[in-house]
Each structure stands twice: as structure tokens, then as C-alpha cells.
Amino acid sequence: MEDYSKNTYFSTFKRLKDNQFKVGNTTYKERITKLNALKRALDITYKNKLREALYADFKKPYIETDITELYLVIKEIKYAKANLKAWTKKQQVDTPITLFGTSSWVKYEPKGVCLIIAPWNYPINLTFGPLVSAIAAGNTVILKPSEMTPNTSKVMADIVKDVFNEDEVVLVEGEVETSKELLKLPFNHIFFTGSPQVGKIVMNAAAKHLTSVTLELGGKSPTIVDKSANIKESIKKIVWGKHLNNGQTCIAPDYALVHESILQEFIKVYKAQVLNYYTEDASTSNSYSRVVNERHYNRLINHIENAKNQGATIELGGSCNAKDNYIEPTLITNLKEESSLMQDEIFGPILPIKTYKTIDEAVAYVNSKEKPLALYIYSNNKKNTNYIINNTRAGSTCINSNAIQYSNHYLPFGGSNNSGIGKAHGFFGFQEFSNMRSVLKRHVKGPVYLLLPPYNNFKQKLTD
Ligand code: NAD
Known about the structure:
GO cellular component, one term: cytoplasm
CATH topology of the largest domain: Aldehyde Dehydrogenase, Chain A, domain 1
Protein name: Aldehyde dehydrogenase
GO molecular function, one term: aldehyde dehydrogenase (NAD+) activity
Bound molecules: nicotinamide-adenine-dinucleotide
Family: Belongs to the aldehyde dehydrogenase family.
Mean pLDDT: 96
Strand content: 15-25%
Number of strands: 18
Shape: globular
Distance between the termini: 46 Å
Keywords: NAD, Oxidoreductase
CATH class of the largest domain: Alpha Beta
Radius of gyration: 25 Å
């Protein structure tokens, strides 16, 4: 056994490890009591503090905090509460004839001590959402939120101290180094949400202990708009999905693939919709948040500058204010394929448009890149829609809308390969934090007895 005693977080880890069976053996009702306490904190006690903290972190409008953070975690809690009794029950399975005389079931047992590492873009939802699944499944947990939303992390730390015992759930604040130190410990499961680059670091660290991982990653989510789409309705959703949280959403439409015959109409309606949602000057709109920090602001401005230098056309926006990390809703066409906007995940309020002539061309373009976390299709042509779904791969797809697939907890949420491994939400989240333990019990002698050595005297074995 490796000596972890010098690790900064070893004593915390050990406390959680020593307590794992006590927590693991809690009844579903006791787990619901914990979930209720968390729900009360989010819904009542700390609601305003969380809204204020996220506003201080990147001017996130209160209403967006309510809808995209608090509501989603509370919904996850309600769903787990309603189903936990059934999920934690032993799941009887069939018995093949060759195992006559036995019965079998699956027991969802907790994995043990889990680490949840969260990003900054939806800090409450992506820290507490997985926590709901981990608690429902009976684990002890260390939470490590992002250092980039410090105001929110601080309030979340207070909530954890308030709601949980320190041998059940602990929140550790800190920078990347904190994360690296935690990753050295032999957790039983790691649930990581963040970039594919860091996902690889997490998976590497987990491999050392053969720790199972859930990796909720990102990438470039395409939005295909074909000739049959209702442009006005489609754009209402695309503009919302792109600019919600200032484009800093893992499942935001990253780029649009638009049929060449509707490009001009697309641009015209997009401009009108931006005006409609955020007024002439989005910096004065109370529905428009900011880029999270200077580093990301500079990264996005560089994308725009590079595109301009390569001859791209800024159809809308492009203005900015470094003091406030503000970038106007921006629409760009005529991009070179090698431009950084077409290569990197954008994660900001910029939508590049690429045109296509045939559905095959659009599909080939999507398939030339890593498998996306989400793929959106705006179309009223069933044949095109099915063709796109059957000939591409993605974590999820939304037809004639975007982002809202995330809020259906009956659907698994996650990516595929570069966009992620494993699934979250509802029962899928519970499953991710559980080990499916197979149990078989023998009741009476069955035919298996006949197979014991010596391989003769079958009659006698049956009467023994
Ligand atoms: P990130 O990968 O930079 O950071 C995520 C977490 O990892 C943070 O807590 C950070 O402290 C930690 N971290 C950073 N570098 C590390 C390292 N070298 N070693 C160990 N830990 C490290 O991601 P981010 O910038 O916070 O978030 C944006 C990314 O997350 C985007 O790619 C986005 O698509 C993705 N994302 C995915 C989902 C999803 O559900 N699939 C949701 C939100 C965001």
C-alpha cells in the first residue's frame, strides 16, 4: 500500500473512507433527509447568497441562476427522492434453466469515497448536481469546485458545512494544484466535469488506482440548419442557446452549418433576434452576462482578431470592453477552416457560420471533427433529420431546439469519447456512483451439482 500520509488531503480522505460503510448502509429515507436539507439550502436559506455570488463572479442574471443552476439541482433532488426507494431495492433478475435452484439479483452498492471536480461555467449545478446522485447512491464525497468563480465556491462551502457532517461530504476550495493533489489519492470514483484536455489528466491519474471515472467534457457542438427549417423559430432558440451564460455552456451551439440558400435570411433574422433579446447595446441589457475573466476575454478577442486577419466577415457585433470582460453578440462568416474559431471549442458569445450544399457535405464536416457533446438539427424534413442522426455520432441531439435536452432527467446526459465517458442525471447518475453487485443465492440442489468432480456417478450426486 502506498503511503499517502504526506498528502494535504489525506486526513480528510481517511475520515471519509473510515465512514463509508456507515453512510453506505443508510436507508433510502435517511438519504432523502440529507437531500431535503440540501434542497432547503438551495431553495430557501442560501438562494439569495448564491444569486449574488454568481452575479459578482460574472454578472449572471438572477433569473438565469434560478433557471440554469438552482432549479436544475432542485429538480434532480425531487426526482431522486421520488425514485430512491425503487433504485435502492434489490433488482431481481431471471435465472437460466441451467442454474435451476438458485435466485439472482443486482444490488446497487455505493462505490465508496468519491471525488467530484467541477468547472466554473455552471458552478452550482455542476458541483451539487452530481452530489445529489452520489448521496442518493450512499457515497462519501469530496467536492472541488472551480477557482474561477470564487464567490460562488465560498457560498457552496458554507452550504456543505451547514448541511453535511464532515465525515460525509467535504468541499475543498483551491486552484489547479489542489485538484492535482486530490487526484493522487485512491478514490473509488471520480466524477469530473471540464475540458477534454484536463479530462485526460484526470483519467491518467485515475488509471494509477484503477479508479472508475465519469468524464463530462466539452467540444464543438454543431447546429445544422437545413432549407426546410422554420428560420424565425429556429433562430429564437439558437440565439438563446448561444448567448445564455454568455456562450459559456458546454452544450451551446458552437458553430452553425447553414444551407447556402438560406444564409442571408439566417444572418438577417439572427441580427433582429439579438436586437430583440438584448437591445441595441447588449452591455446595458440585464439579460446578458459577461465572460468569466480576463484570460478568457483575451482568448475570445484573439479568436475574433485572427478571424479578421484571415479575411472573415463580421456580420454582427465584435465590439468589446476589457474593463468589464464584455463582448457583444458576434456573428462571423467566411472563416478559413484552419481558423481557431473553427478548430477550438469557442465557449463565448461568438457564432461562426459555415455553409453547405448537400446534407452529405454537412455530415462529412461534422464527422471530420471529434464526436460532439451535442448535435442540433433544425429541419422539418424527416429524411434529412434521420440521415443526420444515423450518420453522425454525438452525446445528445435536440431537434428544432437546443440545450433543453439537458433538463430532461429521464435522459442520460454525457458525451462520447472526446466529449465524455459515462452519463449523468436521474437514474443514470445514481448508476454512475454505484457498483452493480451481482448476487446469486443457491436454495436447492440444481443441475450444477452434476458438474462437480468426479465427472461420473451423476445419479448418486443427486441423492447425496
Ligand atoms: P477545466 O477543465 O479547465 O477545469 C475544470 C476543473 O478542473 C476545475 O475545477 C479546475 O480547477 C480543474 N483543473 C484544471 N486544470 C487542471 C489540471 N491540470 N489538473 C487537475 N485539475 C485541473 O474546465 P473549465 O474551464 O472550468 O470549464 C470549461 C470546460 O468544461 C469546457 O470544455 C466545457 O465544454 C466543459 N464543460 C462540460 C460540461 C459537461 O457537462 N459535459 C459542463 C460544463 C463545462
